[in-house]
Structures are given as structure tokens and as C-alpha cells.
Amino acid sequence: MAKETLKLARKDVLNLIELTYILYREELIKKLKNSLSLVHFSIDMWTLLANTGFQAIIVHWVDAETRCAETALLSLKEFKGAYGGEEQAEVFLQVIREASLEDKLGFFTSDNHGSNNVMLRYIAEEIENFNPVLRRVRCFGHNLNRVAQAFLFGSTAKQGEGQQDEDKAIKIAI
């Protein structure tokens, strides 16, 4: 008996990934809605080619059945052309509205890029009682990098909007 091999073209692999995602998406959304915790987000934006970027939205929650912390990819959206904080926020809001998660928003971990501050402020305009300063968690890797640079190159006062937001969050928490 001849052994048959399945040959997939590049587009077939992408279609297979998308179909698998759709199959498991509804189950993921059900888990997020039933979570024992708020749903927390890690959001990262990166550029693949000039004028093409991707936004990954990772969710973190405590599963109601297993009572364990879980993590999953909720969305991976492609951006063509320019994308800033407002465009990223619009995509994020579309994703959480499709999943009906507006009332489950927890904390947001992202790198120190200024567009993340813009994104969270934009979300705050659309979601009632969402405080973009308190909900922002800086990525540990980026903070560690800042500490290493201060150690290697000397301590200088950080300037700009990011520092103002961090100072404001500390004052609110105290």
C-alpha cells in the first residue's frame, strides 16, 4: 500500500491555523467570561516589514474549572500602513467587544513605548471607570534594561510622559 503524504502550500497552512483558531476561540471566550479573576492583557506591537506591523493580545486569567492561572493568545492582528496608539486601541476594543469582555478588563503589561500610553488613554475614553494610569504595568524586561543602563551609563532623571504616568500611579496607590 502506497504511503500518501499531505502536501500543504503556504496559504493552506495559514488557512489551517485560522480554522484552528476559530475552532478554539469560542471555548477560550467562554473560559474568559467565567474566569475567577479579571482578564489581564499583555500587548505587544512589532514591525515585520516597512509599513506592516502585528499586534499580539495575550490574555491571563484564573480558570474557573482548574483554579489555575492560564495564558492564551486572544488576537494577532496585522496592520498595514501607519499604526499608533489610537489604531492599536481601536483593534483592542473591537476584539474585546466581540468577546463581550468590557466588564472583565484587568491590568495591561506592555513595553515602555509611548504609543501604549496613548492606547490606554483611548481605551479609557471608551470604557467607563477605566483608569489608564493604574491599569498600566511596565514590562519587567524593559524595566530591567533601564536599570542596567542606569548602572552602566550613570543615573539620569527620566524625562517625559512615561515618567509622569509612573509618578502619578505611585501617588494614587499610596
Uncertain runs: none
How many helical stretches?
5
Number of strands: 5
Strand order of the largest sheet: 3-2-1-4-5
Q: How many domains comprise the coordinates? A: 1
In N-to-C order, the SSE pattern is HEEEHEHEHH
CATH class: Alpha Beta
Radius of gyration equals 19 Å
Mean pLDDT: 82
Shape: globular
Structural summary, described in words:
- The chain has 174 residues and is α/β, with parallel strands linked by helices.
- The protein has one domain: Nucleotidyltransferase, domain 5 (2-Layer Sandwich), CATH 3.30.420.
- The protein has five helices and five strands.
- It has helices at 10-33, 85-98, 114-126, 140-153, 161-173; strands at 39-49, 52-62, 69-80, 105-110, 136-138.
- It has a five-stranded mixed sheet.
- Helix 2 packs across helix 3.
- The longest helix has 24 residues, at 10-33.
- The mean pLDDT is 82.
Outline:
The chain has 174 residues and is an alpha/beta fold. It contains five helices and five strands; from the N terminus they run αβββαβαβαα.
Secondary-structure map:
Layout: H1 10-33, E1 39-49, E2 52-62, E3 69-80, H2 85-98, E4 105-110, H3 114-126, E5 136-138, H4 140-153, H5 161-173
Parallel strand pairs: 1-4, 4-5
Antiparallel strand pairs: 1-2, 2-3
Helix pairs in contact: 2-3
Please tag this protein with its features.
5 helices, alpha/beta, 5-stranded mixed β-sheet, Nucleotidyltransferase, domain 5, 174 residues
